[in-house]
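Entry under discussion copied across for reference:
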Amino acid sequence: MKVALKTLTPIHVGNGDDYSYGDAYVDSQGILHRCEIDYSKVNVQEIIDNMENSYYIQKILREYGKDIYTAKCRANLSFTGTNIKEVANRRVREFIKDGTTPYIPGSSVKGAIRTILYAYYLHKRNFMVETPLGERNFIDLLRNGLKLLQISPLGRDREDRRDKYFGKRFEQLVFTYSSDPKNWRDAKYDIMKFVEISDFYPVKHNYNLYVDAIKTYSKGPRDIYPKPFTVYAETVEGEFQGAIRISPAIQKVLKSHEKGILERKLDILGLKQNDLELSEEEITRKFLDYLKEATKYFYELCMDHDYIETGLKHPENVKKCEFKLRVGFGVGTHYQTILKLLETSNQNIVKNIILQNRLTKYAKLYPQIPYPKTFEVIEYDGKKLPLGWMEVIY
C-alpha cells in the first residue's frame, strides 16, 4: 500500500559521514555549498601546505569548488578561524542520500514502528507477554530473568553494558513467535519480518535540505540547561512516498510446522487470524489503523519527557496530527521508551533499574530528575523544535 510521510518538524537520518571546512563553504546568502575542488585548476602542493589554514582552504573552495549539492544554512556556522582544531570540530553530519537526493530508509521507519508496537503491546496486555514457555509477566522477567530461556535479569548480561543493546533480549522475547526455547532469538522468528517497508523518496523532489544547529538540553538538580556544545546536521523537510504492507508469507507460515505461537502473537500487529483471509490491502489497512491507535498512546507516553517537564511546548502541528511517527536522530532508544512505560506501573521499579545500572549520575534523585534527562532540539530564528516528527498518510 502506498504511504506518504510528511515532515512536521525537521528530521535528520545520518549516513555516518560528516564534513567540515575542507569540503564545504557558506556563501553570503546563507547557502551551504557541499563541493569538491577542481584540482586541474589549482596548485595541489600549495593546498597540501595550507591544509591547516581554514581561510585559504575556504577561498580555494569558493573559487574552484564544484557543487555536489547545496543546502540552506539555518545554523550560525562558520568554517573559518585562527584555531584550526576548533574550526575542524565544526563538522556537519550528512543526511543519507541516494546520489544527491535525501531519502528516509525503510529500516528507520520500521524501527520507529517497532518501538511503538513494543510499548503498546505491553500496555494493552498489562505487561503480560506470550513466550515459548507460555505467558509471563514482563516486569518479573526484568527482575528475575528466565533460566529455561537463558535470559539473565536486566543488568546482569553483557549486552546491557552498551546502550544500543541494553535489554535487547526482552524486546526479542516480545517479538518472537518461536515455540522452541532453543531458537527464540533467531531473527527468522521475529514477527516484524512480516511488516515490509520500502525506502521513502521525496514526492516530485518536493523537499528542502537545511543545515541546522542541534542543542542538547539537560535537567539538573535545579533547572534545565543547555549542554556546552552544538551538533551541526543536515535536516530535511518535505513529503516522502513509499510503501508498507503485511507480507502474504504470514499466511503460509500459519499453515506450516514453523508457526510456533504466531497465532497468539498476531495482536502485536493488531490482527486476528481471520483477518488474514482478507485481501493484502485490507490486511495492511487494518494494521495501519491499529498502528494509528498505538501512536496516539505512544505520543502521550513520551511527549512529556521532551516538553512538559521542561516548560517548552510541542508545536501545534505535531499535537494536532492524528497519525505521526518519529524517526532519525534525537528520538531516543527502545529501552528508554520501555522505562517510560514502566513508570506508569511503578516508579520504584524504574528507580531500581536506573540505580543498579548507573544509567545517569543523578540516579538517586529520580524521579525529581527524570530519566532520560536530556533531549535535543533544533534552534533557529528563536524557535526550538523537536526532531523527527512525521505525519503518516495512507
Q: What stands out?
A: The first strand starts at residue 2 and ends at 7. The mean pLDDT is 90. The chain has twelve helices and 17 strands.
